Each structure stands twice: as structure tokens, then as C-alpha cells.
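Can't paste images in this forum, so I'm doing it all in text. The chain is below; anyone willing to post the predicted C-alpha cells underneath?
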Amino acid sequence: MHTSGNPENHDGPKDTRRCRLACRVGRHTDRCSRPALPGWPVPVAADRYIRAGTGERLAVKRTRYIFSAITWFGSLWVLFPLAVLIAWTHSRRSSLRTSAFVPLSLLLATGLAYMTKLVVERPRPDIFSAAILLPEDWSFPSAHTMQVTAFLLAILFLSKDKCFISTATGAALIILLVGTSRLYLQVHFPTDVIFGIIAAIGCVMAARQLTVEQRNNS
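Text version of the structure:
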């Protein structure tokens, strides 16, 4: 009887899917455990856990296409022309400084997002294969989430509709969908999205001080 010198041949069948996931998580941890800044967890344990859970849903192609379309709502190519259009519309009934509020909020969010990426240098997720081509820049923070949050929040500040609650609910839903799409498509960690929302709020408040508040004080 032929016997192999490798004892692993007698272990029986393995759960290959689980083993493959464990190997990927191990490689990801080795690659990303080096902090780009002192004390910076890249990535944190909660990120890896959530990424492993959402990765199982990539098999549904129809859902993938839906989220690929939703993620465009956070793209600068879509939001900036809309911001310029809103500014032009407001310039006809308000000052130039006030009409620049929405574009300035968007540009501040974009600038802060990409400067933070260069400082933190957090790699993109690789626990699972991405559903779309991975962007060439760094992962932290999510620029799409920052941009759509800043854009919609600035519009809410200018909004004087009687249906403010329904408008705010719709804006929050769009932000949630864009953030979720970045996770589902495997291009961001959860903390990238969370920080993007928080940072975008700060950008809008800064833009408000430079535009709307300055006009009120003058």
C-alpha cells in the first residue's frame, strides 16, 4: 500500500471555502497591519468582520449592477455640474457669495478627502474581489460619501420648503445608499464611510461660515 510522507493527506476533506477566506483575511492583515500613521489601525477588527460578511453578497449580479449605478450619485462628475447649476439659479435671487455655498461645500469635501487619503495611505480592501475596478487612490476616507453628504447637506441648509422633513429624509436615504454601495462593491471599509459623513458635515459648516454667515454679518 502506498503511503504518503505528508500527514495532511490523511486528514479527510476540508471546508475549502472557509480555509480560503481565512487565508485571504490573513494576507489582508499582514499587508495592512503596518500603520501609515503612529497608532493608526489599518484596518480595525470591526472593518474586517463587516467586510467578510458583506463579501458573501457579491454573487447576486443584479444587486451588484444596482449598487454600481447608485454609487454614481457620489461622483464628482455628477455632483459638480449640479452644484454649478444650483449656484447659477440662486445667483439670480441672492448674492454671489451665498450662491457659491453649495459648490464650495462640495469642493471643500473633495479637497479634504483626497488630502486625507495622501496622509493616511490606507490600502483598499482585498478580503474579497471587488465588484468593480478598484480606484487607484487610497481607501480612507470615502470621497463618494463625503461628496454626496456635503452636496445634499448644503442644499438642505438653503432649502426653505415646508416639506423639510421629507426632503431631509430623502437626502439621508441617498447618503445611506451611496455609503452602502461603497461597502457592497468592496472598495471601502466601514470606517471610511463613517468618517466621510462626519468630515463632510464639518466642510459644510466651514463653507456656511465663509458664505451665508458672512453675508448675514455684513
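The first helix runs from residue 16 to 32. The two ends are 95 Å apart (CA to CA).
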